[in-house]
Amino acid sequence: MFIIELTYKVPTETIDANMNAHIDFLEKYYRSGHFLASGRKEPRDGGLIFAKAYNTKRLEEILSEDPLKQLDLADYRIIEFKATKKVKGWDEFVGEEG
Predict the structure, then answer these.
(1) Would the pLDDT of 24 be above 50?
(2) Residue 16 pLDDT greater than 80, yes or no
(3) H-helix segments, 1-98
(4) pLDDT digits over 47-77, tens only?
C-alpha cells in the first residue's frame, strides 16, 4: 500500500485550470482498482492519494500519467506502508497487489 502526497508548486489557479485532466487520471486508476481514496489537503497546498501497486516502480509508472506531474505543477512524495491493523474489507481492497 502507498500514500502519495502531492505538494503544489504553482498557485491554485493553475492547479484548478488543470483539475479536470487530473480528475480524469484519478478516475482511470479508481476503475483499475489501484486507488482507494484521494482528496485535497487543508490548507489547500496539495493532495493525497491512497493506492495499491505491485511495487514503487509500478506506482511511479502510474503517476507519470498524471497531468499535474507531466506539467511539473506538483511534487510527489511516495510513502509505502504495511498495514498491521486494519478494518474488515481491507484484504479485498488490497488483493494480490497489496
Answers:
(1) yes
(2) yes
(3) 12-17, 19-31, 56-63, 67-70, 90-94
(4) 999 999 989 999 999 999 999 999 999 999 9
Sheet containing 35-40: which strands, arranged edge to edge?
35-40, 46-51, 2-8, 74-80
CA 84, 96, 69, 20 dihedral sign is: negative
- pLDDT given for residue 88 in this prediction: 80
- Every domain of the chain and the residues it spans: 2-97
What's the distance, CA 65 to chain centroid? 11
Identify the residue with better confidence: 22 or 88.
Answer: 22
Q: Is 32 helix (H, G, I), strand (E, B) or coil?
A: coil
Which DSSP symbol is given to 96?
G
Amino acid in position 95: G
Superfamily of domain 2-97: Dimeric alpha+beta barrel (3.30.70.1060)
Q: What are residue 39's DSSP bridge partners?
A: 48
